[in-house]
Amino acid sequence: MTTTEIHNFLLDEPCVCDISVQENKQYKKHSYLYVITCGLVVETTQFPLIIGIPEDWEQNLFDFYIGDDFNRPFLPHVETYNKLCLFDLEGALIDQDFFGLLSQCIHKAITLLSDGLNEKNKIDLIHEFSSYWNALPNSLYSCCTAQFSADIGSLRYVKKVVHQSRSRTDSYKFFISEDCGAFSDWGINETQKIGGFICLSPKEYLYPPDPRSELSLSYINDLLRQVPSPKLRTSFRKIGCDKLLVFFIHQPDETETLLGVFAPKSEFTEVDGYYQLRLENGTTLYPLSIQRVDSNYLLQRTAHSQDSVHRCLIIGCGSIGGYLASQLVQSGISDLTLIDPDKITPENIYRHYLGRAYIGQYKAEALSNRLQTDIPNLKIKSIPETIQYALENYDINFAQYSIIVSATGNHNVNRWINRQLISAHIQVPTFYVWNEPLDLGCHVAIINNAGAASYEDLFYHDSTSGDLYDLTAYCAPGQKITRQVSGCSNSFVPYAATVSIKSAALCVDSIFAYFDQRYRPNSVISLKGDAFYFKKAGFKMSPVFLAQNDSMQVTPLDQLVPLDGVTS
After folding, report:
1. How many distinct helices (H) and strands (E) make up the chain?
2. How far apart, in Å, are the Cα atoms of 142 and each of 39, 61, 191, 292?
3. Do residues 362 and 340 touch, judged by C-beta distance below 8 A?
4. Which of 170, 410, 423, 479 lies in the 20 to 30 Å Cα band around 154?
């Protein structure tokens, strides 16, 4: 397209006037392929409009701005520097038809501005409250782990100095929590001070202030007038002259709004039965841009919306166990016991969650340290011993847990675990996960240790040959799959880290599916690989692999039977 083609196209748009198109121009420090200036008539108002067309418009769309000299009202979806937020591009497909897309954006801008002038989309100010609050002048960054379980309370905060080389002035950031111990969990050791929080449930919406102006003291005092002073005295009496206040607002439509303010050199005065904040002359009132870092909030981005109450025992912290533990804590299970007697060795690092920085460390202890560094608020106990030794010599018992996972990949260890659970009548759901060689696949067996089902149901004893066969195996029997590096003690089954990651994901999904009652107990879930490398190595697949038509299959243990057939 050319400047003339764009100009002529816009002439046909009835709400667009006073058109000018310039090529290779800058606007608001952005370089554009074309910059269009025009008038956009919305009802009885003509908005001065600037449209920036970037070179990569196929990926990032067009930028629409209202002219800076125009005295516009405070409108939803218009940022402080007058850019219109037309579309949420997350996951959106952008039409590659330039003129069709330009027309669509113009009509979207008309609708957005018309709805703003008529207050039809005023509720969007509530849904996007944080973005307007964070854009206020003098805003300071803060992160907060508080849960706000009460209506009113005290909290602790740490103010850290941030040196800004460009402006040559210092700024601040804050860490806020109700829990004193949370600071050390985040590596914060500075002096803690006392602030306060108030949870509000107004009958009418509380709208954000206009971010084009500094936060007014009257806005905060209006919030304080929501709660009579007698309710605040006990919780706020220890707050010093530097006051940090957090307001957690439950809007009438149940939208939650979190905002904070830092008022140095200030005091509370009581006016008509309400606390009011008064600043010392020349003192700046700082809005706090609060980033929530509590687990309940952060888990909203996952499929699991709240911290799980499960206690999980993981036996085996090798290739599967490492990825499995990581995925479990990222799914909200925060209470783990990790058991593994082995240390990380150099040959582990290409298929283990832990890398070379942990070589020489016990897997259980190293995994615990890594997880607690990455994820807050975890409760992890690590035992660098075998499960047999741990049960005899440590203060643990199978019955203490709501989930048991064996990620040893060893049928003999799994059979021992299952016998212990059955003999002690412990009906904790137990998940046994293991890999097949190379890229054949993986399995998860779910056994709740009630009734007649047991781990032994996975095997078939051939009375003629005397051999014991795995009824789930994708690998045909009678083949030597293990490899050796330096003697029998260093033999291993070859498979890539990607297989262990799939096994871990299958196990985690199976755990949540079980508790959601989507999987029945005493079943085995089998996930087929494509067997490309397995066949390339000259190995043969079992009739079980060949007979499974779907990539994933769930089979009750009492339906496992030997399959006859030709291997391939």
Report:
1. 16, 25
2. 40, 32, 16, 9
3. yes
4. 170
pTM, rounded to two decimals:
0.76
CATH number at residue 93: 3.10.110
Asked if residues 86 and 112 have their Cβ atoms less than 8 Å apart, the reply is yes
- Least confident interval from 60-74, 173-187, 319-333: 173-187
Domain finish residue from 267, 293, 319? 293
**Inter-CA distances, 457 with 49, 221, 463, Å:** 72, 69, 16
| Domain co-membership, 116 together with 140 | no
Three state DSSP letters for 35-89: EEEEEEEECCEEEEEEEEECCCHHHHCCEEEECCCCCCCCCCCECCCCEECCCCC
94 φ/ψ angles, rounded to the nearest 5 degrees: -100, 125
Instruction: For residue 545, list its beta bridge partners.
Output: none
Strands (E), 178-307: 193-200, 243-250, 256-263, 266-271, 274-279, 286-292
| Count of all residues that appear for the chain in the document | 568
The answer to whether residue 95 sits within a structural domain is yes
CA atoms of 549 and 568, how far apart (whole Å): 15
Tell me the backbone φ, ψ of residue 163, rounded to 5 degrees: -85, 125
State the Cα–Cα distance between residues 378 and 345, nearest whole angstrom: 26
Between the two ends of the chain, the Cα-to-Cα distance in Å is 59
Its domain, for residue 308, covers 300-557
Q: Tens digit of pLDDT for each residue in 189-247? A: 889 999 999 999 999 999 999 999 999 999 999 999 999 999 999 999 999 999 999 99
SS3 513: helix
CA distance 23 to 5: 12
Residues facing 268 on adjacent strands: 277
Assign 566 a pLDDT band (cuts: 50, 70, 90).
Answer: very low
